[in-house]
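REQUEST FORM: STRUCTURE PREDICTION
Request ID: SP-0412
Submitted by: Lab K.M.
Chain count: 1
Length (residues): 125
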Amino acid sequence: MYTRSDNYLNNAEAKESRRLSKKDAREQALNAFIEEGKESILSTHEFAGLKFRDFATYFFADFHGGKSADRLVLVLCRLESNKGLDSIRNLLTYEEVMNEAMNAFIERNINIITSAFDAQQHQAA
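STATUS: Completed
RESULT:
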C-alpha cells in the first residue's frame, strides 16, 4: 500500500532522474561541441571566437612554460637525421603533446566555449 510519503518520494525520484538526464544530455552535447571545436581550430576555422592563432600563441608562449617550441625544433631535427622507426615514435610522442596542449587550451578557455555553446543552444530553442 502506498502512502503519501511514498508518492512524494516517487515524484522526487522521477524529478531528480529527469534533471540528471538533462544534465547528462547537456554535458554530452557540450563534449561533442568541444570535440568539433578542436577539429575546427586545427583546420584553421574559428570556434567560439577562438582561432588557430590563439592556440599557437598559447602553445608556444604558455604551454609547458614556453618550452614547446624547443621540443618541436628537436623533433623536426631528429626527423631529418633519423629516418625510420625512431622518427615515427617521435611524431607519435609529439602528437600526444599536441593533444595535451589542445586539451589545456580548451580548459583555459572553457568559459568562452561554454558561453558560445549556451548561446547556440538558446538560438536553437
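NOTES: The chain has five helices and no strands.
Reviewed by: T.R.
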